[in-house]
Amino acid sequence: MALFAAVVACGRKEPVAPIGTSGNGPSGLVPLKKPGGPQIVSGSLVAALGERSLGPYLAKRGSGEKSAGLVAWLTAAEGQGRRVIVVPVDGASGQPRGGETTVAYVPVDTMTLTVRPMRGPAPGFIVAWTALTDRGKSLWSIAVGDNGAARGKPVEITRSNDDISWVDVVPTDRGAVMLWAEETRGGDANLTAASLDTDGKVRESAVRVARSVVGWHATELPGGLGLSTIAAAPLDPKAQKTLMTGTPRSGGALSFTRLDAEGHAFATPVAITSAPVVSGDVEVVRDGSRVVFAWTDRSTEEPAVAVATIDDKNLIEGPRRVAEARGGAALLGLTSGPAGVAVMFEAPARRKDENRRVHVARIGDRLYLDRPALTIDTIGKTSPELSATASGFAVLATAADCEADSPACPNAPAVATVFRTDAKVGLVQREPLTFQTDPAALGWNFSCEGEQCLALAASGSAPARIRVVAVKARENTKPRAPVVASTATAFARIDDVTAVASGESVLHLAAARAGYGVVVATLGAKERHLDRGADKEPSATVTARVVDEQGHPGRVEVVAPKALPNGGVGVAFADKPDDGGALVWVGRDGGDSQVHVTRIDRRGRRQADSLLTSAKGEKTDVTVTWAGNGYVVAWVDTRSGNGEVYATKLQPDLTRVAREERITDAPGDASDLVALARGEHVWLAWADPRESPSEGLADIYVTAVKKLDAKRVFDEQRMLATAAHSRTPRIVDTPDGPAVAWIEEAPAGSESPNGGGFGAFWIRLDDTAKPLARPARIPLAGEGAATAVAIEGGANARAVVARSMIDAIALDGVDLTTSPPRAAALLALDGPPSLDVSLLFVNGVLYFNDEGPTAPDRRARRARITWR
Predict the structure, then answer these.
(1) pLDDT in tens, 262-306
(2) How far apart are CA 754 and CA 760, in angstroms?
(3) How far is the C-alpha of 156 from the C-alpha of 137, rounded, in Å?
(4) Average pLDDT for 79-102
(5) Cis before residue 553, ω within 30 degrees of 0?
(6) Distance CA 268, CA 253 (A)
């Protein structure tokens, strides 16, 4: 079934709805009954829609016997135009009160559709749409009665040269106020309001109610409405470049303005936040005499859900960050009812493929979340919807059709499901919309009145069967069970995820233990592709920060502002943290790249810098290892024509005590160099194409150098001779000897990227780097290609593998001690499938990079994994 997420660029989101060609949808009642009990779920079939139509959408007004509803959708192109079709329904049961009615013929390039209720002396509904014009867009609307009949001809509300990106209608005692956003070329928008009578006509001239805003929300209030707006943050000096690259601005400040029933402001705007901390949309609800605001605050490295309130006397409480899940928290919904105010949010870093774990919690009077929260595992990319009931709250989401913790959940079908809670957010009802033999894969336009909830649901495809669904209350699950629809318990799970760096694309990551924390060094760039033009070489920044035992990063210290992005970064610390550490990186000096060594203190602050190399040629893949009485530094160097591995020894004060030792002498360029201190030696592993230097297809080699003077101990050993390209090795120490893991890269377009000789492999070695057995493939938790691997040292053999899929990338945890090894999906990353993931373990904690769609979403992360 083709699905369309009707989500506008700013402002309130329209619900997700199927699209398709319009068909003649038969009306009927398809009940779902509790055996031996009353009818709980009823579904009234209102339409059968195929591809390329827009909608349908459902609007509801009133309650009980006085309630009414309207379903509206836009047909696919029919010649040079399209039709707006409506079906009146009962506002309580959802049953149709009439057949399909065409209320308007619209241009073929009509883009959006909105349906909202209106009150006043002749209540009804407003159906609005936007269409392309020669120079912009036009906004149209029509009034429709409760019987589905149009009250006149369509009215053109406005015509603009800018993009009309959002339309909403707020009911008032005189009819309704229509608001719309005209998005400018600068990326912000201007908001306009117009009062409509019950015939859908503009009562008086439209008025501009906000300028230069990037987010907004309209809320019905007694005698009028409240308009919440997010001011556009000032552009930095690179404003023009920001607009050209499409990078969104940072968050803005939130204001609240009260409007009367005509859409005119009768009070000055009130600043809810003075700082620009509101990102994306803001959700707003009424709670008695106060108005509650919620948004996602991205002003720190980890996003959080924040709330604030304002009362009738304009007294403000907050803002307060109420949801700060490790890895960040993002707002999904806000609702208010007799049981109070509830917020719905998710921790995006905990996503697994298309699975999302969302949380619902009640907000107390002092703006703190009541515990415990309700947790729901949902399926798919569409957001769940939250509504208030008479006794609690309810969520509509697509979830596995299975009981909690059932082993059948991983293979259970995904069905639109209603989850109802009590006032303490304890689950009391789980109602899948199966309609006997015709389960709904998607539900939207969810709202509750009293204890009964109404929504739209779609089943099947080509055409999709659309029902108006009414769900009555019952108790079929225990209130004390806070987690629902969870999958079978895995042996490995992520306990928390923390961002340790943000705002830049992390190209390389290094970390080392330092006292009671870990010093994390990153090689990063503000610009995703490092494209500076042919006249200027791309550069990156080397930074360091200390991360404490709880995962909280300290102050960011800039070690090198102009490092080379392909040089890598390494960090090591002395046995006594007060003795400081060393950080290595590559910079351009005198036309050639050279290895730099920077002395840092226990807080990662730069103390001194020295130039380690001076030979001509390119230097890459730097590493540094504490050797007991100094540091062993190794790198790849092209001074002899090929990229060869070199190493040397430094004292703790970074003075050299040995000459530069050439470790390899082979055709082709070595790469991906890593190091491990073990006993009296420092072990080195790298990728080397010496057997096929022209094709660049490498194998993994291992050797060791002495800690005393960096001289090679024994000849390098090849781990596995393959026709594939071997890369990105990792080497760790275990009680049985060193262990090496790496990637055998499948050719582009391979149908089996984790089959045959491809994927992640690992092997144990003896004291001379000879394999103790044949390399073993590391299994994955699902379909995809292994693109990076980290292996944990110590007594337990465990690994984490980055798994690239068609449209996502995920991390899998693998227990290598079992036979066969077990793999479990840990989390899905924000980055694209092509993301070059840097993975490493430090004292059992995983560090990795991730990259979302905007600059604040580009992060280095820390994750604690629990293995069972």
Answers:
(1) 999 988 999 999 888 888 789 999 999 999 999 998 877 778 899
(2) 8
(3) 11
(4) 94
(5) no
(6) 16
